[in-house]
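Journal club side-thread
Mid-discussion, someone asked how the predicted structure for our own chain would compare to the paper's figures. Pasting it here so we can look after the session.
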Amino acid sequence: MRTARTVLSTLTAALALLAAPGGTATASAQQSPESAPAVLDAASLKVMDWNVQGGQGADGVTDFSRIVRGIGEQDPDVVTLQELHDNRAVGGANQWQVLLDAFPQYAAHFAKSDTNALGGVAGNLILSKYPIKERLTYQLPQYPSGTTAVLRSLGGVRLDVDGTDVRVYTTHLSAGVGTEATERRNRQARAVIDKVSGSLMTTPMLLTGDLNVRPDDPIRPWFAAAGWIDSWTRVNANTGSGAVTHPGDGLDDSRIDYVYATPAFDVGGARTVATTASDHLPVVTDLTVRAAPVTRTGTVLAGADSGAGWAQLAVAGDGSATLRVCDNRADGWGVRAYVYGTSGGAQVLTGADGAYADRCTAFGTAAGAVTSPVVKVCLYQSGVEKDCRQRQLV
């Protein structure tokens, strides 16, 4: 296990038990290099997320030993897996037990989803080198009620990372492009957001999984509005060959697997791993808990339909702030955001992301710049702004 050093005691005290965000900055702000942790003395995690398809590879061969090797080669601190099977009822293997036998250093939580997966049981698995203090299994809603579509679940754990509470959740939303399948997935997404979002968004939490949607899907702004930050776009381009997690035929390549984080985390890196062991590629993310605790966070969605992008602001206890601006639509309009230190106060920060498919752009202020900030977000093109809206963070 990699050693994770102790985070400031004020952060630990703020955590509760497991429950239920290219442009230029103003002179008072600077673009934030999110690829480097804020400080060295902080809890760090290497997280691996992977839809393993029960060990069936992209080559059509089912060989779960390749999954075992893939995890072992990365040696992550936390692993979240989807489409893991317990096939003992039909004379097969319990795949999560296979992993525990191969990696006794991990604790596990298997969140059962479907009870008739090719005669066995399928679900989501969380593995952790750190002690698991609490476990959660939450069945997602089925739609319509009489459908035989695969059942889905949300799994969650509360970890003790050297004295710091870290919550990790993972899920797998339904696939499909028809009206019924889309509504089923949308209802599942809403249920996940309602279950894991809320008052704990300033604390270290992760939400991973196969969402079965590309980055421009309408579901994505829902997660942003709830305060979840796509860790991939903090260090990488949003689309392109490097972002593909579900390789297709070259025309159907897609990014559908995500590692979301709360603003309490800084992201040091995110990458996919080349393999044919599954039809998905693993996503490996390096995260560090910020030493300065986040005291408030909020999101303002952009566009008349709230789907064009967003601006997310996180404020630390010392009055510094980080603004992340994201453009989620290739429509020729960029997203620009302004931050005012108080309602009616001076503008302390502005930033813009004008390139769809670019990484979300981050900007920061010095300590003491904000007390009760107001965030304004507009769409812009050349010298024109439209659809402006604002919100005060309380």
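Post-session note: The first helix runs from residue 9 to 14.
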